[in-house]
User: Fold this.
Amino acid sequence: MQKTSARRFGALLVGLALVGAVACGGDDEETPATEAPSTEAPSTEAPSTEAPASGGELEGLKGTTPLVELADEWKQAVSDFWVSEGNEALDDWSYAAESYDSVMLIALAAEAAGTDGSALADKIVAVSKDGEKCSDWTTCVELIRAGTDVDYEGISGPNTLNGNGEPLEASYGVLNFGADNRIDDDLTTYIPAAAPESAVLPLDSAGVEREGDGVLKLGGLLPETGSLAFLGAPMIAGVEYAVSIINDGGGALGNPVEYSPGDSGDTSTDTASVTVDRLISEEVDAIIGAASSSVSLTVIDKITQAGIIQFSPANTSLKLSDYADNGLYFRNAPPDSLQGAVLAGIVAEDGNASAYIIALDDAYGTSLADVAEEVLGASGVEVLGKKIYDPAATSFDAEIAEIVAADPDAIIMISFDEASRILRTMVENGIGPKNKAVYGVDGFIGNALGENFDAGK
Assistant:
């Protein structure tokens, strides 16, 4: 069971006003709290020149990811379902709940619109707020069929969407690695975030008409391969479990929901484009994914111009906040304007006087790095450097040498699965989590990181 703790970030509140000017769509937020933060500051001593100790090199690493305290009963049900489909039991839950909720929102919107055509897009925001609260398929769909407006309260949180189709509220889990190089669930804390009323935008209506046929068909664009493959299992499990719940409850629009899985790969391949072409030919009504913002940006035009909904449970790049998407792109993962501010707030609250940011060169990495840099500066933390790197590089020696020379109190990593190799180079150079305060983000924070690290990958 993970423990819940709300934390106050005095410096973060200053930074959030600044982020409102940076973010597309004005997603600044307030962070309520009831518990005083830790006053223990990380070590500011120079990096050790001794060889790193064997085992537990990731202990002390902490990172943020969109996350609420998931009920054990729900996690067990999803994992049992996943195993029944011939897979291994789940041990990571990143974006599983968001994936589940994305399916529920689409299906409830179809019921509210009375169609699986593009017109259902105009109801997705509507079923996420301002109606009678409900949290399960049976209750929600019965209310809709009785003519009642609903406010779906999901497994991943309120799922209250802005007019541009992205969340107005969020919760972040702060995950901590233990001595076994795995996440220690007992140390997990949660930070709520919410945008002010001034950030609310008018509804973007669907700009492309596509007729439905009465059968809600969903397609998957999720990472079975590529740099975010570690997210694949929990996300796919969340989607398929949601479809099973809806179908066990009688389906949507009077018919079973159909689901066609598909791989998103990453930006080093054309996997996503191939998958989208297939799904369009199959005449799906909505595509769930991609996990990567950069991958979504390569296919969003193709999807939305076809009158098909794209709903990502994991995209966070600010580039998608005001993208010209014909009112057909949605996400229930909060934008980087929120995560960047929360991450920077943690770094400041932990007592670090200086920080260095190393981020991958893509839409996700650069936007998150920019927000973190802005909020750190507003919080009084000196940013000694911001290095944007090529995630396909064979070595990160040069980048790590620059961090060693800068000697920051804290190191912020914004990475995908190459994080394991970066961390190994950091450990070899005496600036790993045992020597420095090291912080990560949702792009790599998970038990797969520890597995890759231990395997030397």
